[in-house]
Amino acid sequence: MFRTKRSGLVRRLWRSRAPAEGDGDADTGGAAGCCLGKPGASKPNPGTEAELKALTYSILKKIKEKQLEVLLQAVESRGGARSPCLLLPGKADARLGQQSFPLPLLLYKVFRWPDLRHSSELKRLSCCESYGKINPELVCCNPHHMSRLCELESPPPPYSRYPTDFLKPPDSLALQERGEQPHWCVVAYWEEKTRVGRLYSVQEPSLDIFYDLPQGTGFCLGQLASDNKSQLVQMVRAKIGYGIQLSREPDGVWVYNRSCYPIFIKSATLDNPDSRTLLVHKVFPGFSIKAFDFEKAGSLQRPNDHEFSQQPRTGFTVQISFVKGWGQCYTRQFISSCPCWLEVIFNNR
């Protein structure tokens, strides 16, 4: 019975491995500010499928049954269900073809990113119990406690600025302190030019923003009543899925794309504020990007980008669009034309 259950878990895990090909781009029309290392962009093949299967089976059969259950929960839910750390020896190596991989890296390749080459491409999520800790013997190998690092490209040529009436900040932004822990940001959800729902004040270190997420707590966009009848808006809303994770960490604010589609981000601290406009960065599923740097923001001059000059706290705003991009390389020049997007305004006090 013990072997039967273990063998069943191993078979289910192998069937749930990451596909070798990427899902493709959800919004064609250019790659301005694109994350490098798009899934499926490169296809290293250090070993055959049969070799990979044999190696994966041999590794999984050495893992304790309860740990296999943890790994299966994380993999089958695609990170949607909260799963504990999977602590395994970090120095153990596995050989695939002509290459040798550390055990954690191999598991990340099998269950999330087949094109992954080196651990330097990864960032541990703040939800992981091993975050910020150094243990030379044991390493968390839960593939959904990790994200890919988003690398930034150089800005494209500037394009025309936004119209002067692009965005009027809501009056309720002057939030009153109520004797509770001060918020570090507020989040507004928009559908095209209309703000939907209330402003969400964030006190906790990390926040999940999603449409539908198993065991999810946070800002649920699926519960917001929308009067927008646009088919495109409805389609994009349904594609938000697990959405994003917004986390305040010691070096700044990170955004992790938990959905199955790209997101697009614009922030004053990601680019040179002396340029005429700020770059829109594309972040693929499973990738993280440091969207905001408080220290850098404090020394910024007023950005020339007209969009940010209209904000109540110039430079202390990040804009995030789901699925659809905007800017020079897209048909939508302004974020107000995007079907579903977020405005994150940071407390600079």
UniProtKB/TrEMBL annotation:
Record-linked SMART domains: DWA, DWB
InterPro entries: Dwarfin, MAD_homology1_Dwarfin-type, MAD_homology_MH1, SMAD-like_dom_sf, SMAD_dom_Dwarfin-type, SMAD_FHA_dom_sf, SMAD_MH1_sf
Main localization, broad class: cytoplasm
Compartment annotation: Cytoplasm; Nucleus
Cytoplasm keyword on record: yes
Keywords carried by this UniProt record: Cytoplasm, Metal-binding, Nucleus, Transcription, Transcription regulation, Zinc
Kinase among keywords: no
PANTHER family associated with the record: MOTHERS AGAINST DECAPENTAPLEGIC HOMOLOG 7, SMAD
Descriptive protein name: Mothers against decapentaplegic homolog
